[in-house]
Amino acid sequence: MKLDEQSRAWNNLAALCSTHSSEALLQAKIIIRDEYLAMDIVQDSIVKVLENWYMFDDSKPFWPWYKKIITNIAKNLYVKKKREISTQDQEIMNQPHTVFLKENCTNLIAREFWDIVHASLTKRQYQIITHRYLLDMSYEQLAKNFNVGIGTVSRGLNDSHQKLKKVLEKY
Questions:
Q1: Among 77, 125, 135, 146, which is least packed, fewest CB within 10 Å?
Q2: CA distance 68 to 48
Q3: Contact present, 109 and 31 (Cβ < 8 Å)
Q4: Domain coordinates of the chain in residue numbers?
């Protein structure tokens, strides 16, 4: 292929990447759950598209091919980050749970933790736990916020703790 043809092909693919930039960013965010890393993934995916332009079949739609590239890059980065974080797991888990929740909610371990918490508890239990530990609400504030008695808040937190203890023992 001549240099002009290659240049035109790259420009066309770069334009297609630009056309699908918002979908690409959303796809990366869904997998990696971090906006800044998602932006890096989209940039890496454009480079990957240009490196592998010869593999693209013009007779097929561009988005599924591009989406697969984004997904593969995001999954590889997620696995890499997970491995890096796993070396820190012991140190993080030895901290008191409130410190762990407040200081580490932006890392992947905490995100996975909150996914587990969300999936394991009822909506009300999840709300009480998040308000108690992430918003530092007292029992009195929780009771007022949810329009229930302090005993109900205490019971809800205790039930939530017991349920989470059973679920988290698997991990």
A1: 135
A2: 11
A3: no
A4: 3-86, 90-168
